[in-house]
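Appendix C reproduces, verbatim, an entry submitted by the partner laboratory led by Prof. M.T., so that reviewers can inspect both the input and the predicted structure.
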Amino acid sequence: MRRTLRTMGATAAAATCVLAATSGTAQAEAPKPTSLYAPSALVLTVGQGEDATSAAVERAVTLTCAPRPAGTHPTPAAACAELAKVDGQLTHLVSNTSDVICTKEWQPITVTVSGVWNGKHVGWSTTFANRCMMKAGLGEGAALTF
């Protein structure tokens, strides 16, 4: 019995040495693209607060546009089409002029967008004085109204 254990131990040690000697250094291959599309995946939030760092998030949705519109956004196809129309320039989706009459109360609402649009990092936010001003500024747009 003692001889069998000693033989098994020596065999295991020899096998370990052989594997260590033959394995060499493995080189990881560079990751290959998994699709023909540049990634477009965004997280959009709305929250109460004066800026993106202090706003208490009330709603958040995800939006993926490539290779096809998807996510938890209520209208992903319309939102992706709207973003494509302005080439991802989110400031073009906010209007400073509106026929809507709002009160002048200060209850700030901040809208943020972060993620990737056509392979480029996005970190954008805008703050409205109150909900009425937000609805007036966003109008009938699809991307930022969720």
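The chain is about 25% helix and 25% strand. Additional entries are available on request from the coordinating office.
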